[in-house]
Amino acid sequence: VQLVESGGGLVQPGGSLRLSCSASGFAISDVVMGWARQIPGKGLEGVSSIYSDGLTTDSNSGKGRFTVSRDNAKNTVFLQMNSLKPEDTAVYSCSRGSIRGQGTQVTVSS
User: Fold this and answer.
1) Residues 20-56: b if buried by 16+ CB within 10 A, e if exposed
2) What's the rounded Cα separation, in Å, for the pair 68 and 81?
């Protein structure tokens, strides 16, 4: 089982990024997949989740700005992030249960 994130980078406030989480060793359509972020000096914060039936949930921090989706054929989960703010700066990672990827850095700065 492996999770590999990509798509992070430096973006200006108000900009957008789409993060990808490529999974191997299992089918993402069969499990709950989650996105979380680690802000420097703070604990891990859940961002969004997508369930096997396609239901999605979002935390207050990303509600209305972040959208989680998946492509079952590519076995990949996405996190579309719009209207980014400096306080969104963090390492974003995806997870299946206790298994978490290495994360991708998102920096929002002018």
Assistant:
1) bbbbeeeebeeeebbbbbeeeeeeeeebbbbeeeeee
2) 9
What is the tens place of the pLDDT at every residue in 54-97? 999 988 888 899 999 999 999 999 999 999 999 999 999 999 99
Give me the half-sphere count of Cα atoms (radius 13 Å) on the Cβ side of residue 89.
12
Nearest to 8 by CA among 78, 91, 83, 65: 91
Complete DSSP assignment for 46-83: EEEEE-TTS-EEE-TTTTTTEEEEEETTTTEEEEEE-S
Collapsed DSSP state (helix, strand, coil) of residue 4: strand
Q: From CA 46, how far away is CA 89, in angstroms rounded? A: 14
Classified as helix, coil or strand, 35 is strand
Tell me the C-alpha distance between 71 and 43, whole Å: 29
